[in-house]
Amino acid sequence: MKKALLGYCCLLLVFNASAQKTNWYINANAGLFSFSGISAVNTSFINYSSDLNIAYTNNPYGAKSGFGYGLSGRVQHIYFKHFIAGIDAGYEKQSSRVLINGISGYTPGTTKDGHTNIDYKFINIFPFAGYRINMQKIHLDITGGVDLAYCLSAKENGSATATDGTIFTTNTDRKTITTDIRPRIQGTFSYHKAGIYIAYSHGFGNYMDGYIGGINEAYARLLRFGISYQLK
């Protein structure tokens, strides 16, 4: 990944010499993060041991979306005939969610309500290329590339209330992956210096890599809604 990123940056420096215009932006986004794959689930249960006084979610890799956010900076070059290329880099915190419908190891084992999130922190780099469509005062940039997501941490945080009112919580490290490569497509509408964008990415990295028994596959998917502001 480092070699590919270095190669892209070198190409960007070469192409910068022929760029007609270079712009700098700051971005903020809200994200809906979830998992796909055979092991992604909508519901799971908490395993509880009274002897060890520990609790963890049996399968925390939720197909339901949790809420996240991100902040980044972007440099973008505009070339002849409206071709564009650039790179975006920043920090993101994303969460997946699974509903909890039971407590294993406790009587009564049913729950009134509950859910578990896996909270991720990423450094994300997005090299991209695309095309700009001019519509009078509004510009539409259609871009594609890959998210190079470096996982800083992953923590399971769950809470469920049994039918007798007992509350169970989980707090477990779930960092199983260091880097995820996610193909990404994005559309950005801009007017003067302000812009809005929507982006979707789907990862290649298996977040259940190393799990034993059966087929274990969970892949990240992320839908972003963002705003941008042109600094230069």
UniProtKB/TrEMBL annotation:
Keyword list, A-Z: Signal
Residues in the signal sequence: 1-19
UniProt protein name: Outer membrane protein beta-barrel domain-containing protein
Organism of this sequence: Limnovirga soli
